[in-house]
Write a structure and sequence with these properties.
Number of strands: 14
Helix content: 10-25%
Distance between the termini: 20 Å
CATH architecture of the largest domain: Sandwich
């Protein structure tokens, strides 16, 4: 009677187990879940140099780019917009300051709004306010969850222009006054009529109709129009200057949304192109060479180690069987 040969599968089993454990362990360490749907995340790496507010700064050349789709605003009156389909976003941080760069295609440069029929190109970033208890409504937040908005406007950057410089064919016998009262919007406290305001504003809101100027104006920005594209950089300290302003922490993520106004299409107020909420993640990793995130490289390395472990197990099993 022949006794059946017992095949020992411990080497191959051990190799497979080692591969699975190594892969799962490293993926868990870097926070990558291949079975879950990954939301769009803009990663802000640590910059080795100060990017400043110049959109052409060399610091942006290696920063990862997130393409955020935009659609028309249809949640509240005035609905509309949607002429800008996408906006490219990049983010960096340097010495406790956050920098976000937006770029989008626009066939016309609209930076003059002295005429009542003209509207300005503009862009904005929306974050949950520090005091927000939950993720707010993307449409100006709600009573329990406010939002902090950074807005840049092309007309504010171009500077205020005297009506005589815009209506060049008009004939005026005399102006009764040229003091502050003559500039009615400025006299009423309209921040967009303030020549010292600059191109960016910090705004807060807790629902429709509550948008207001923040108590602390600490966001800087600059925009450049070239080759049919706008590029704008926002800059602010990581810590908000007031309780209603967003604060950013290295190693953590926050929600973020974009809006773009196309002046030549009559965009203003709620008529604009908007995104859904995305994620902004600050990491303490210097951006020195590759655009790919460290997590992606580590995950790829984990898979490679897993396959190597599997190969070793199979090779050992084959060697043992050849010696029987």
């Amino acid at each position: 009677m022949r006794i059946p040969t017992v095949i020992r599968r411990r080497p191959i089993t051990a190799g497979v187990a080692l591969a699975v454990l190594l892969t799962a362990g490293v993926l868990q360490f870097v926070g990558v879940n291949p079975a879950a749907s990954q939301s769009a995340t803009l990663t802000a790496f640590e910059s080795s140099t100060d990017p400043g507010t110049d959109p052409a700064s060399p610091a942006w050349k290696k920063a990862p780019v997130l393409q955020a789709p935009l659609s028309f605003q249809g949640a509240t009156y005035p609905t509309g917009g949607g002429s800008i389909p996408t906006v490219s976003a990049q983010a960096l941080h340097f010495q406790d300051r956050l920098y976000i760069r937006l770029q989008w295609d626009d066939a016309t440069k609209d930076d003059t709004t002295t005429k009542v029929e003209n509207f300005s190109d503009a862009a904005a970033i929306e974050f949950p306010a520090v005091s927000a208890a939950t993720v707010p409504s993307i449409c100006m937040g709600q009573a329990s969850s406010g939002v902090n908005i950074w807005q840049w406007r092309a007309d504010s950057q171009a500077g205020l222009k005297d009506p005589a410089d815009v209506y060049t064919n008009a004939l005026v016998d005399m102006y009764p006054s040229k003091d502050a009262i003559f500039y009615t919007a400025r006299a009423a406290g309209n921040p967009y009529a303030d020549p010292n305001q600059g191109p960016t504003q910090t705004l807060v809101a807790q629902a429709f109709g509550t948008l207001a100027k923040a108590n602390v104006q600490d966001v800087k920005g600059d925009g450049v129009y070239a080759d049919g594209k706008w590029a704008v950089v926002f800059e602010r300290q990581l810590t908000g200057g007031d309780v209603d302003q967003a604060t950013f922490t290295n190693g953590k993520s926050t929600d973020m949304a974009f809006a773009v106004w196309n002046g030549s299409e009559g965009d203003r107020n709620g008529k604009k192109s908007v995104s859904q909420f995305l994620k902004l993640s600050l990491v303490g990793v210097s951006l020195t060479g590759e655009e790919s995130s460290p997590a992606g490289w580590i995950a790829a390395a984990a898979l490679l180690v897993g396959f190597v472990g599997l190969g070793v197990g199979l090779g050992w099993y084959g060697y043992r069987e050849s010696k029987r």
